[in-house]
Amino acid sequence: MIPIRAAVPTTEEARALLVGLSRAIDGDWDAIAAELAGEEPDAALLDLVSEPFASVDDVAERLARTESYLRERGDRRAVFLTVYSRMTAAVRSAIDDGAFVDSEWAASYLVAFAERYRRALVAFERRSFDSLPRPWLIAFAAAARGETLVAQDALLGINAHITYDLTYTLGDAGIDPDRDAKREDHDRINAILARLVQTAQDALVEAYDAVGVAGIDALFDPLDDRLALLGLKGVREFAWRNAVLRADLPEWAGGPYVDWRTETVATGAAAVVLAPGFDAGEIARLRDAETEGDAAGGFREAFGRLT
Predict the structure, then answer these.
(1) Is there a contact between 232 and 275 (Cβ–Cβ < 8 Å)?
(2) Distance CA 105, CA 118 (A)
């Protein structure tokens, strides 16, 4: 049966699509990609991530090493990995504790999710921009240019990985057979994501407080509503509905439709992150604080303490 209800956007999805279509990304990202294309790939980084992930343990170990490598070089791509490596550790612990209906599927889900990130990172590092999803191009290029705040670096990565990658991760792991059981496990993983996004918000508040920006919680609260046009809860439901469409509709219909709406919402969300509702004075104050202190390092330390 064709899933008509899943194909028709909810009110929230329709609103997100309209905003995504109307918001122009601040910057000519194709020109930026061309500028970055002349840079030599980092061979040591590619050594860490060029091979596909083989297991949950492999994901956890190599994500942690990649975060350390990038952080030691002052590469702002490490900011997202601060969150993501902890998310992986949390899901791995839940698998070990028997928290899922189907632990084998949950493990394949975790590896498939990490594979989406790994392939995007490799494509960016090799300057293969034609094969790189636009939300990841925006996130990685912004980090490479160093013109964003730590909070924006974190959110751009979270947005690309959850708003965009999650739809395709469900397809990679498969939502059938036993779709109801897999939906239950999907929701359990989502609960872990939600807790870690809240922890990231708390860590950002602590990091900016540490470098002298008081009242930062008013700017980041609630961070999950700034994550994407649909909010974190809506994005998780959006990904599942997209996976149902890709599984149940003919490929010629479901694939292009899901691709269009997923990229539109994720790219629009990146525009929201890059043009947050802060006034110019607040932005200047945040940039000054980051220049004078180590907000990225403070974020990592705070996030580690809070998890």
Answers:
(1) no
(2) 20
